[in-house]
């Protein structure tokens, strides 16, 4: 089995679980977890740096193209849209999985064994976030935390697959349909979110809308 196939086998079901989000009540009673704030592009609150370079984008050009339009059937355009998977405040944090997988493979952030490499991610930050040491430090810490979360989630999924044949079959079907492993994009989404939550004051857009979104994300713990 190829490395790509192994990664799909290990992480193909992450997308299904990751996007099914519910929220616990907030410790701060001023935050209502049943009412997510109005959507605003999160990069306007905290400009998390893009980790791609011109060279990487050339190497991964086939994945950098805009996604094709949704298929049109007898009933008109498909009702399903990818963005509907994500709560409004989280849209815009989800990178194209095949592009991120390509970038992480080229930079060896994801090693041949399919595991994240913190040192390689740090080296990537040295190239792409070299002008903001504070941001780079926060992103590196976020990557370490997200790597641990991914490892824990992987173990939980493996346990559920071993105990639930129906779930195992669904995940197997999903892996067969996946164009690439979602693991890199899941990891980068987590890094983006953790970086947003701990965004340096020097770049944070300190206004009511941005503060409301961050309060919601910090107080309403995802389950």
Write the layout of secondary structure elements.
Elements (H helix, E strand, L loop, with lengths): L2 H9 L2 H5 L35 H6 L12 E2 L2 E2 L19 H10 L11 H11 L4 H31 L1 H13 L5 H15 L10 H12 L4
Helix pairs in contact: 4-8, 5-6, 6-7, 6-8
Can you describe this structure?
It is found in: Secreted. Keywords: Secreted, Signal. Residues 89-215 form the OBP47-like domain. Belongs to the PBP/GOBP family. A two-stranded antiparallel sheet has the order 1-2. The protein has 223 residues and is mostly helical. Mean pLDDT is 76; it is low at 1-24 and 74-94. The chain starts with a helix and ends with a helix. It has helices spanning 3-11, 14-18, 54-59, 97-106, 118-128, 133-163, 165-177, 183-197, 208-219, and strands at residues 72-73, 76-77. The chain has a single domain (3-19, 47-63, 87-219), classed as Recoverin, domain 1 (Orthogonal Bundle), CATH 1.10.238. The protein has 9 helices and 2 strands, in the order H-H-H-E-E-H-H-H-H-H-H. Helix 4 (97-106) crosses helix 8.
């Amino acid at each position: 089995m190829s490395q790509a196939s192994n990664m799909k086998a290990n992480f193909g079901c992450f997308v299904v679980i990751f996007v099914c989000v519910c929220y616990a009540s907030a410790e701060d009673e001023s935050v209502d977890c049943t009412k997510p704030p109005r959507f605003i592009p999160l990069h306007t609150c905290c400009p998390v740096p893009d980790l791609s370079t011109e060279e990487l984008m050339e190497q991964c050009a086939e994945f950098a193209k805009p996604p094709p339009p949704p298929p049109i059937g007898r009933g008109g355009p498909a009702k399903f849209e990818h963005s509907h998977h994500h709560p409004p405040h989280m849209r815009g944090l989800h990178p194209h999985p095949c592009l991120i997988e390509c970038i992480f493979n080229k930079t060896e952030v994801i090693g041949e064994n399919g595991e994240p490499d913190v040192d390689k991610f740090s080296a990537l930050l040295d190239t792409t976030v070299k002008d903001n040491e504070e941001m780079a430090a926060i992103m590196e810490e976020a990557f370490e935390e997200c790597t641990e979360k991914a490892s824990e989630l992987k173990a939980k999924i493996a346990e559920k697959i071993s105990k639930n044949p129906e779930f195992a079959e669904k995940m197997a079907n999903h892996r067969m349909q996946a164009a690439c492993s979602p693991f890199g994009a899941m990891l980068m989404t987590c890094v983006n979110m953790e970086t947003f939550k701990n965004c340096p004051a020097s770049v944070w857009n300190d206004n009511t809308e941005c503060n409301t979104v961050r309060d919601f994300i910090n107080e309403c713990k995802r389950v």
